[in-house]
Specification:
This protein has helices at about 10-15, 115-120, 180-200, 215-230, 250-255, 260-265, 275, 280-300, 305-320, 325-330, 335-345, 375-395, 420-430, 450-460, 485-500; strands spanning about 1-5, 50-60, 60-75, 80-90, 105, 125-130, 140-145, 155-160, 165-170, 205-210, 235-240, 350, 360, 435-440, 470-475. The protein is α/β, with parallel strands linked by helices and about 500 residues long. The strands form three sheets. Strands 1, 2, 3, 4, 5, 8, 9, 10, 11, 14 and 15 form an eleven-stranded mixed β-sheet that branches.
Length: about 500
């Protein structure tokens, strides 16, 4: 069953266009005739939706659900619609008590990235067609997601302005209202307020989940929603988090990359036999301890580090990274990420991926300081782009001629004033119900797993919040869920996080 809704404003425009009784006005001077056709534009309605009914199987259980797909306005201070955000809202239909039913609000990152990634590859009720390691296969399409969290929570996937089918209502709307760390947080908090009100979910336990730059977004939203919308959340899930505005010094920025280098070198079998023969999670603690206890202090001493100590540190770095001592010394113990992706498999004729270093690429020439392209991202666009266009139009019945922006135009992006890590800490301090879970892929070179741990250490220097913070690691990259084993584990971790962060009946929010 499909229900289509258009707001009154749209119908008024339609009615006016049917008026055939107007008296033509005779101009006082002859009109200038131009031999040209008027430009056609693709219509954009910032406030409409369509509802479709579905059923899927999750963990062996039949789950009926309703999908609401459409746009909802962003209102300015004067009550004028300045944009329409494209969203998909999945609501389980055999649950009567919405007051106790959790709601998950999901964002991806970029900035400028659509919500496609987690929507059709992680938590949503359908998956794109890929193999068990995440590589594209044909024919393109969609299948059921047997691991979706829809059995325990309803989910809304939100596309910020100029991602997916989301657009400003006019080219005259200043982009400064949308394209910046704090502008993004402000208007999205307002939009969430509208969504929660329209969908009657104020009573529900609520969760935010963000991936990559989306972790900045949801970390800032946790506090903004409390202070500006008076809306309190039970949990925030950070998938492949950025640095969240938490400053790194030159020494820490250089040192913290090494555990990621070690994980990638282990995957490609570039380590010495004594390390290679260990399991990944058995090997990495040794590298992490060296990073904090030896490498960080050594790099902090810069050019005043004794030569013998410098060579000792370089030898250990070589052992853990798969790179030569010579190359490490040439870079003053600070290996650029681009160079690592180019150098690790240079002698074998391959590069490794940035967002997922399991992926290999082929460059025009083996020489150089960085790869020609991101091998993992081209692979993902290969499989995701057809799938989301097929799914939205054919399964969800949302029809439009607009281009679905996988990555949309959001430049320039104002990155000043990024205090999102501190925002999340403050939100946790102010809300005893609020819990945080971090999910990281060991082979993610853009938002690496050890920096994600470092975030948690620095975000809560008092240690008073650590009992409400947890970290999970997975044997894949930035989108760890593309590997089927991690898809199952990651969703189960979210499922358990939701269950464990729900307060017991009658439990007050107090210290």
């Amino acid at each position: 069953m499909k229900k289509l809704f258009f707001p009154l404003a749209f119908m008024s425009v339609f009615a006016f266009s049917q008026n055939q009784t107007r008296t033509p006005q005779i101009p006082s001077t002859p009109p200038i005739i131009k031999d040209e056709k008027p430009a056609l534009t693709i219509p954009f309605n910032p406030d409409s939706f369509i509802v479709t009914e579905h059923i899927t199987t999750i963990k062996g259980q039949k789950v009926p659900f309703q999908a609401t797909t459409g746009t909802m306005p962003v209102w300015d201070e004067e009550g004028k619609a300045i944009a329409g955000l494209f969203y998909t809202y999945y609501e389980r239909t055999d649950i009567k008590d919405k007051a106790s039913r959790p709601l998950v609000i999901s964002f991806n990152g970029g900035p400028g990235s659509a919500s496609v990634w987690m929507h059709i590859a992680y938590t949503g009720p359908h998956l794109l067609n890929i193999d068990d390691e995440g590589y594209p296969v044909q024919p393109y399409g969609i299948k059921e997601n047997p691991y979706s969290i829809l059995d325990v929570a309803d989910i809304v996937f939100v596309n910020p302005v100029n991602t997916g089918f989301s657009r400003p209502t006019s080219k005259d709307v200043p982009t400064s209202k949308f394209f910046g760390v704090n502008a993004d947080i402000k208007y999205l908090a307002d939009w969430i307020g509208t969504f929660v009100t329209r969908s009657n979910r104020w009573a529900s336990p609520k969760y935010l989940i963000g991936e990559s730059y989306g972790t900045n977004r949801v970390s800032g939203l946790a506090l903004q929603l409390q202070t500006a919308q008076w809306m309190y959340f039970n949990g925030v899930i950070l998938v492949s988090p950025t640095t969240l505005g938490i400053e790194r010094g030159a020494a820490s920025g250089a040192a913290l990359k090494l555990p990621y280098f070690a994980a990638t070198a282990w995957y490609h079998k570039m380590l010495s036999p004594d390390l290679q023969n260990k399991d990944l999670t058995e090997m990495l603690p040794e590298v992490e301890n060296f990073t904090i206890n030896e490498l960080l202090p050594a790099i902090s001493r810069g050019g005043f580090l004794e030569e013998s100590k410098r060579k000792e540190i370089a030898a250990k770095m070589s052992r853990y990274s798969g790179l030569s001592e010579k190359v490490i010394l040439q870079n003053n113990l600070d290996i650029p990420l681009d160079f690592f992706w180019k150098e690790l498999l240079r002698d074998k004729g391959y590069t490794v991926g940035r967002l997922d270093s399991r992926y290999r690429g082929i460059d025009k020439k083996d020489a150089g300081e960085k790869p020609d392209f991101n091998s993992e991202l081209t692979s993902w666009l290969h499989s995701f782009t057809p799938a989301i266009n097929i799914y939205v139009r054919n399964e969800l019945n949302y029809k439009t001629d607009l281009k679905y922006y996988m990555f949309g135009p959001v430049s320039p992006w104002d990155r000043t004033g990024d205090n999102t890590g501190e925002n999340l800490r403050a939100a946790m301090a102010q809300n005893p119900y609020l819990h945080v879970m971090v999910q990281s892929g060991y082979f993610d070179g853009a938002c690496d797993y050890f920096n994600a741990k470092y975030n948690m250490w620095q975000m809560d220097p008092s240690g008073k919040l650590k009992d409400r913070m947890s970290w999970k690691g997975y044997r894949s990259g930035h989108m760890m869920y593309l590997r089927r084993e991690d898809l199952a584990t990651g969703n189960e971790d979210i499922r358990q996080f939701i269950k464990q962060s729900l307060p017991k009946q009658g439990q007050p929010a107090k210290y």
